[in-house]
């Protein structure tokens, strides 16, 4: 009798495992479909960084962004400081206008993808690097499969087919909440993400 109960329990575990795997694949396919519809995207953003526990909000910033999938995005922080993060398909650039510094890293060698790179990425990278689950209507939670990651969890929020926000839990236990507004789908091209460092800035080029 015990043997049959054990076999039944193993069969149930196998069934549950298959069901969860199929559910994850379905959520990943749904998210990929939502992102595929966002070939180009531009708009405004407002982001707040929250400390774990009762400390509350640590910082708040706002600005504009534009996106051309795959591989191209620009994140332009306008307030309270002035910074630009942009990818041109080959490099990831970080231009700190206040400090007058430019940092460049090879995009293809990035081992720890940022949330923006996830947003601008392709189906294969999404499926291979993350476990995707649907946590509510229009909400998709991504959990990195590897240990060397830039965040613990990323939640993409959609409303009426449009990207409405992102919720990011980083490796320090801090939460970043991002809301998008004034969205449009302009006819962007890779040339719109071409970046040339301004004269006089300090340059920091990393080969990996």
Automatic annotation (TrEMBL):
It comes from the Bacteria. InterPro entries: LolA/LolB/LppX (IPR029046), OM_lipoprot_carrier_LolA-like (IPR004564), OM_lipoprot_carrier_LolA_Pbac (IPR018323). Its main location: periplasm. One of its GO terms (biological process) is lipoprotein transport. It holds the Pfam family LolA. The keyword ATP-binding does not apply. Gene3D superfamilies: Lipoprotein localisation LolA/LolB/LppX. Keywords: Chaperone, Lipoprotein, Periplasm, Protein transport, Signal, Transport. Residues 1-21 form the signal peptide. Belongs to the LolA family. Participates in the translocation of lipoproteins from the inner membrane to the outer membrane. Only forms a complex with a lipoprotein if the residue after the N-terminal Cys is not an aspartate (The Asp acts as a targeting signal to indicate that the lipoprotein should stay in the inner membrane). Monomer. HAMAP family: LolA. This is Outer-membrane lipoprotein carrier protein.
